[in-house]
Write a structure and sequence with these properties.
1004 residues, mainly beta, Immunoglobulin-like, Ferric Hydroxamate Uptake Protein, Chain A, domain 1, 22-stranded antiparallel barrel, five-stranded mixed beta sheet, 6% helix, 49% strand, Plug_dom_sf, membrane, CarboxyPept-like_regulatory, cell outer membrane
Length: 1004
């Protein structure tokens, strides 16, 4: 009965498309019959049986039987099945065969990084996800982590600012874990904790290993609360020297623009008497289109030389990338080199490895932030206009140098012409590791790294800039210059020793180590004005008259330095019994200079175990189960991602006092200093305690494989600033540990090899997650905060904060008025707390309520990968579900009361009945659910002859953010969804784009 049921399940999946029968091509010669079984002797239906070198093939039936005509006794039959190792059998004189196919267990042998070491996948007892090169998102990415967007369950990667080449990427793993501390995972690049993502190019990355749960991340102690992302770069390999050249070009296209009034619609509103006639300024300008860089182009070039022999290998990578944003005056040009070298000696007992990478980039920061002007720009206003301050029939324009200057706004094109804002940055990282095998299984290593990041900022406003010469300007028509420099560096030294041994059926690995990390930051800046010529720009600060002319704004000069030290001792024991039972325990004892004198040190323990159920004797009859492993773990991690010097007294400047020195004609004024914060010797890190239970599985010869994880975590001793009385305290607030955050979630990852026979392959990968976040407590008997407000909506109307996080409630709650309707004359009506209905002027703070939540509950992505002969096609769908979005664009600009300022067409359509100023309420909350066709890539790998100078050649084309399926009416439903204040679609936006890429990759 059991075998019949299992065979039925197999045939059921075949009927869904997992396998398909092949046509029998009669070739004459002889007929061969037989049966194909799995290692347990169970018949395998759907196995492809093909005469090698021909199209002649059949598939086994329900009972695993086949019959095929072959040309002769010399024919070779190839038996193939998803998840099984292919078998070749020469026919010879036999007419009947019984073929046993073995499971392909490659996935269990995969090596996974776990921090300060690695393990085979089957031995991993914690929640770790690995993504390798072949699974990366292809095409143009602004940040290296976007290569794995939608690939790891529980990992959120969001670019709320669009595809701005100078913008940032928000990363969050398993929800919110802190209020004021760091919320991003620790990045470790080739063993360097706190690695700089600017030093990574997409073609240089080998894999990402994501340590998700507390047991996995505890080895990194105070920096592991938000998870750890281990990034491994490519290294040279043994064999002949090879070269690789990769290149792509990409272009951004606006996928959706806000629907503001055009010049024609604006004039129609004037004709209808909605807007006064004096608002027609005579031109027709689509300021949004004018701000778009239609000729934007991003190009990337990467050249690699690599090779190696039995004792050494090397890899050197040169790259150049020039990224132009969709916005004018918005770009980033960068180039650099990454080189690595590895060598072994002394009978392979001594290993030395080293790498160095340099990135030099030049960013134009002037453009990109001006698209908000669309909401203020009169579409009948010109961009260029002659200077005229007369009111008699001619366009009034205070701009003296050819640009129209609105009375209550600004002209971005005037800024582009008369300003520059530039950053030149140099980032370096170097590391080396020396390992020696003292005796069998005993290896001592020392790892050291140095990271250095510096940039110089230049900013200048010329004498022709409107801000410098307008009638109220304090600069009186002179130029303004600013210079700033930044330097941060980190030095790391980590000696470790590992011992591995086997005793009978027991295997042990013991790790011990010490970590020292010192980091420092230095800043310097100065500004001056009063430049009567633009000839020097910012290269002659002494020429600025503001040094002596007190009628001009005072010049400024500042400098700053801070540093911190982190020291740790750590150990980990890994135990393996019968390759079936696995146990791992670790502890890290760590001290940080950031915390108070009474709490410099803390310990972070972890323990986890795994049981490979599928290898038990009682599973022998379940041959369809190839991998079934139960995992459970508990770990404690910390968060020290706060500013330096929060626990001690720091001094700041106050007023000046006169000192009358002997013989002096007047007073000398001395600067006073005083404490700017209250010291807290008890300040300590936030502590997260996390339990994780997971199941890894592989069925039907790993045709269907994946994992499911449930976690629950509690972050204690949250860091927050609390109000305190004066006296006894010197200042009115103190930074201390009080609150708790609790969250839990469920994560699912599935991989389904739908078809993997012959020339056609089809694989489906799904990752999904559910998360629930709660701000459990904020107060204790000494320090009290009842709620945290954030997400300022802004003006006009001073509408305040959109989100309120309260004790015992979920994170990200929208808090505001509840909409009822409108009066007959278009006035707002809202629910009051007492059950009555009131006007906007009647509403009080007590009438407000929770009206929605901006944090998605569910995340999901689906990747389909197709391969046919030399072609491959990848389709990535990604979505977020069950959350709300506050549409602030509709809130403000879908309101006709803002006329004659520019408004959305909806203000004269569906919202035309509104006659009062904008009000924040659930009227402007929308369902944010969406599914995106996020990445579509088509590639072709050429067949190259023996005489070709190339060993491989691939062409590809890709499109990102190609389509969005949503009910949200705003520009894009993918708004900020990390941190405490998610779900707000802000008015200051960078256009979302469709990115189209074409590229080539060649080996020779």
């Amino acid at each position: 009965m059991y075998k019949t049921f299992t065979r039925f399940i197999l045939v059921f999946f075949l009927a869904l498309g997992m396998s398909s029968p092949h046509t029998l091509y009669a070739q004459g010669g002889k007929t061969v019959t037989g049966t194909v079984t799995d290692p347990g002797g169970m018949p395998l239906p759907g196995v492809t049986v093909q005469e090698k070198g021909t199209t002649n093939g059949v598939a086994t039936d329900f009972d695993g039987n086949f019959s095929i005509d072959v040309a002769s006794n010399d024919a070779v039959l190839v038996f193939s099945y998803v998840g099984m190792t292919s078998v070749e059998q020469t026919v010879g004189s036999q007419n009947a065969f019984t073929i046993t196919m073995e499971s392909n267990e490659e996935s269990l042998d995969e090596v996974v990084l776990i921090g300060y070491g690695s393990q085979e996948r089957k031995a991993v007892s914690t929640a770790v996800s690995k993504v390798e090169t072949e699974d990366f998102n292809q095409g143009q990415v602004s940040s290296p982590v976007e290569l794995i967007q939608g690939k790891v369950a529980g990992l959120q990667i969001t670019r709320a600012g669009g595809n701005n080449p100078n913008g940032g990427t928000a990363i969050q793993l398993r929800g919110v874990t802190s209020i004021t501390g760091s919320t991003s995972p620790l990045i470790v690049i080739d063993g360097i904790p706190g690695g700089n993502l600017d030093l990574l190019q997409q073609n240089d990355i080998e894999s990402f290993d994501v340590l998700k749960d507390g047991a996995a991340a505890a080895i990194y102690g105070t920096r592991g609360t938000n998870g750890v992302i281990l990034i491994t770069t490519k290294k040279g390999k043994k064999g002949k020297s090879t070269f690789n050249y990769s290149s792509f070009v990409s272009r951004d296209y606006v996928n959706r623009k806000p629907d503001f009034l055009s010049a024609e619609q604006f004039r129609a509103a004037i004709a209808d008497g909605i807007i006064g006639e004096n608002n027609d300024l005579g031109a027709s300008t689509d300021i949004f289109d004018a701000l778009v860089n239609e000729s934007n182009l991003t190009q990337y070039h990467n050249f690699v030389a690599s090779g190696g022999n039995e004792t050494s290998n090397y890899r050197a990578s040169l790259y150049y990338k020039d990224s132009e944003g969709i916005a004018l005056e918005n770009s980033r040009e960068q180039f650099g080199i990454r080189a690595s070298f590895n060598q072994t000696g002394l009978d392979d007992k001594l290993t030395f490895s080293s790498s160095a990478v340099v990135n030099i980039n030049d960013a134009n920061l002037l453009g990109g932030g001006q698209f908000g002007i669309v909401t203020d720009w009169n579409p009948t206003a010109p961009i260029f206009a002659p200077f005229n301050t007369s009111e008699e029939g001619v366009l009034y324009n205070e701009g003296r140098y050819g640009y129209y200057q609105p009375e209550n706004g600004y002209n971005p094109f005037s800024e582009y012409a008369n300003r520059f804002n530039q950053r030149k940055q140099l980032t370096f990282s170097g590391d080396a590791k020396l390992s020696y095998e003292i005796t069998k299984g005993l290896i001592a290593s020392v790892f050291g790294s140095y990271q250095r990041n510096s940039w110089d900022d230049r900013y200048y406003r010329s004498t022709q800039d409107y801000q410098q010469y307008n009638s109220g300007s304090p600069y009186f028509g002179t130029g303004y210059a600013y210079k700033g420099s930044h330097l941060d560096f980190t030095q790391t030294v980590e000696p470790t020793i590992t011992y591995s041994t086997e005793i009978a059926e027991h295997s042990f690995e013991l790790l011990g180590g010490y970590s020292y990390q010192y980091s420092a930051t230095e800043n310097y800046s100065m500004d001056n004005s009063g430049f009567t010529t633009d000839g020097f720009e910012d290269w002659n600060f002494g020429a600025g008259n503001a040094i002596t002319d007190i009628d001009l704004p005072r010049p400024n000069m500042s400098s700053f330095k801070e540093d911190n030290t982190l020291i740790a001792y750590f150990t980990r024991l890994s135990y393996n019994y019968l390759d079936r039972y696995f146990l791992q325990a670790s502890v890290r004892h760590e001290g940080s200079s950031r915390f108070g004198a009474n709490n410099k040190w803390a310990s972070f323990p972890a323990i986890s175990g795994a049981w490979l159920i599928s290898d038990e004797n009682f599973m022998e009859g379940a041959s369809w189960v190839n991998n079934l492993k139960l995992r459970a773990g508990f770990g404690v991690t910390g968060n020290q991602g706060i500013p330096n010097y929060q626990s001690i007294v720091t001094l700041g400047t106050g007023g000046k006092y006169p000192v009358f020195l002997d013989g002096a004609d007047g007073a000398t004024y001395y600067q006073t200093y005083g404490p700017v914060k209250n010291p807290n010797p008890d300040l300590k890190w936030e502590t997260k305690k996390e339990f994780n239970i997971g199941l890894d599985f592989g069925f039907w010869f790993n045709k269907l494989s994946g994992s499911i994880d449930y976690y629950t975590r509690r972050t204690e001793d949250l860091l927050l600033s609390y109000d305190v009385p004066q006296p006894p305290f010197v200042q009115g607030s103190i930074y201390t540990n009080v609150g708790n955050i609790t969250n839990n979630g469920l994560e699912l990852a599935l991989s389904y090899r739908v078809f993997d026979e012959g020339d056609f392959k089809w694989n489906v990968d799904f990752v999904g997650s559910y998360q629930n976040n709660e701000l459990t407590t904020l107060s204790n008997q000494i320090f009290s905060v009842s709620e945290l407000f954030g997400g300022n909506i802004g003006n006009p109307g001073n509408l305040g904060s959109a989100i309120r996080n309260t004790e015992g409630g979920p994170i990200g709650n929208f808090y505001g008025k509840r909409f009822v309707g409108f009066t007959v004359d278009g006035k707002w009506l809202f629910h009051k707390a007492d059950g009555t209905i009131g006007r906007a002027s009647d509403m009080t703070e007590e009438d407000k309520a929770i009206i929605g939540n901006g944090l998605p509950k569910y995340y999901a992505s689906l990747t389909n990968t197709f391969k046919y002969k030399n072609f491959d096609l990848t389709i990535l769908l990604r979505g977020k579900f069950k959350y709300d979005i506050l549409n602030t664009v509709d809130l403000f600009y879908g309101n006709p009361s803002l006329l004659p300022g520019n408004v959305l067409t909806s203000a004269l359509g569906q919202y035309s009945n509104i006659t009062e100023a904008p009000q924040y309420s659930d009227y402007y909350l929308e369902n944010g659910n969406f599914i995106k066709l996020d990445n579509l890539t088509l590639g072709y790998n050429f067949n190259l002859g023996e005489n070709s100078p190339f060993s491989a050649l691939r062409l590809f084309g890709s499109a990102r953010n190609l389509a969005t399926f949503t009910g949200y009416t705003g520009r894009d439903p993918e708004v900020q969804d990390t941190g405490l204040y998610p779900g707000i679609d802000t008015r200051n936006f960078y256009p979302r784009t469709v990115t189209v890429t074409a590229g080539v990759n060649v080996n020779f």
